[in-house]
Amino acid sequence: MYLATYAQRLLCVFGLGMMLSACGGTTEEPATPTYTEVYAQMKSACGSCHATGGVAAKKFVVDSASSANTYTSIKAANLITTADASPLIVVGKGGMYTPAAGGAMMTHPKNLTDSMATSWAAWITAGAAQN
Ligand code: HEC
């Protein structure tokens, strides 16, 4: 009798745990940000070097006053292709690039965090609209 009750309890607790984990939403798709959100992150994560007069200005420029100018710069440099291949993400996450001045390929600093990369990839997959 005691054993049966114990087993029942165990089943109940286990079953409840399964139900709760099903509600946990761990398999949800990442929320797709707007370009305004991506641009805000870009300003803080990339703008220090990718700015007019900055060390990385030749590749693209984050205009801290204009999201539209920034968008044009990124598009002109062809930094958005697909979520997996876009140099904006691949290089920003610490990939390789060819310096504008020529010479051997260099490793880019990992300025793009993994969570930002996931978020930016969702924006690109959704069409990388300017808003
Ligand atoms: C500490 C400085 C620094 C920061 C911050 C920085 N970069 Fe760069 N990045 C560079 C330099 C230097 C280059 C090469 C510039 C050159 O060759 O003229 C470069 C080049 C690039 C390129 C060009 C790759 C190619 O194939 O031509 C991309 C894309 C890029 N960075 C993305 C990013 C992104 C995205 C961020 C922010 C998440 C970022 N960078 C932040 C220094 C930086």
**Ligands, deduplicated:** heme C
Number of strands: 2
Rg over alpha carbons: 23 Å
Classify the beta-strand content into a percent band: under 5%
Instruction: Specify the biggest β-sheet.
Output: 2 strands, antiparallel
- Enumerate the strands of the largest sheet in spatial order, edge to edge or round the barrel: 1-2
Mean pLDDT score:
87
User: What is the tally of helical segments?
Assistant: 5
Shape: globular
Query: Low-confidence segments, ≥5 residues, pLDDT <50?
Result: 10-22
Helix content: 40-55%
Structural class: mainly alpha
Tell me the span between the first and last alpha carbons.
65 Å
In sequence order, what are the helices and strands, one letter per element?
HHHHEEH
Walk me through the structure.
The chain is mainly alpha-helical and 131 residues long. The chain has helices at residues 2-23, 35-46, 67-76, 87-90, 114-125, and strands at residues 96-97, 106-107. Strands 1-2 form a two-stranded antiparallel sheet. The protein binds heme C. Residues 45-46, 48-50, 55-56, 58-59, 79, 87-88, 91-92, 97-100, 108-109, 111-112 line the site of heme C (HEC).
